[in-house]
Amino acid sequence: MEEVERLWNEVRELSLGNNSKVERLQAPPTALQFLRDFVNPNKPCIISNAINHWPALSLWAQAQPNQAQHSYLSRSLSSSSVSLHLTPSGRADALAPLPSSPSSLCFASAYVQRTPFPDALRLIASPDHNPAVVAYAQQQNDCFRSEYSALAADCDPHIDWATEAFGGALPEAVNLWIGNQRSHTSFHKDHYENLYAVVSGEKHFILLPPTDVHRLYIRQYPAATYRYSSDTGEFDLELEEPIRYVPWCSVDPFPPPEKLHEEVSKFPLYFNGPKPFECTVKAGEILYLPSMWFHHVRQSSGDGGCTIAVNYWYDMQFDIKYAYFNFLKSIHYRSPSLLLPEKFSEETDSDPDCL
């Protein structure tokens, strides 16, 4: 199946350029330019100077970590409770060792607790205060227009040139993300067109196009959820009952140094294949992340001790590109030049959305 490996390189050469760089625009595109140059070819880009008018850029980053309770955000949301995601490692919706068998892996979801927003912000902005707990406000249920509706006037309700390019439909969901440098997001993809606007701090993305699906070694993992006791300060990881399996990407692009050789030998298609696209999205910039692109995300905190972003999820078009992707992933691919250690497990469309 050398044709599959050839496809990886052809996509880069024909559509994306083979330099592993995500194109940057210094001003917002017109709707026609955005549709023609990025949406139709399913090509990411970073747009500068598109949200300079947002009050959020100045208002949300005012607090220092030890003053989070006095910040504009805390004052605006003083009476609000939000969904705070807690993990012991900062890796929610990611693979973790099974409690009963550490040599096996499960798909671990965060413990979610309702928390008064000022308390949530203190936990996030001061990560060294309780190093055994990593807090991340990352609810993905249109939370900006529900839990954080008091902040609605600080951002645009939608990205006008993107809305026009996508046919005029408004975003299906708008989400707010508040985290720190301890939180990572593992490789995954979303069935949405994503406009990701960073307000404070920086987001560091690793991107792979949908054609690289085999390089992520998507396999079925039993679902589990963290439980947290505020009395003991300890986490437990419990398998769901009845057992449910989640298709998830197996590759960690940043394995510990002592495990690097092992990971390279387990996942050669990723580590020895074409270089992924990497980019950093800074405060005031928007990343257009096309539907079905695989992405891994890290973050660096801003002056207020947090990384804050707002993303707009627009429905993707289930057109011929989606049919092509389904055909490609249905191939049980075994590289003639890079032997897979295990058979590729076919993915289903039930994979959860996460960033």
Automatic annotation (TrEMBL):
The organism's place on the tree of life at top rank: Eukaryota
The entry assigns this protein to a family as follows: Belongs to the JARID1 histone demethylase family.
Q: What is one Pfam family matched by this protein?
A: Cupin_8
Name recorded for this polypeptide? JmjC domain-containing protein
Q: Which residues form the JmjC domain?
A: 135-329
PANTHER family per record: BIFUNCTIONAL PEPTIDASE AND (3S)-LYSYL HYDROXYLASE JMJD7, HYPOXIA-INDUCIBLE FACTOR 1 ALPHA INHIBITOR-RELATED
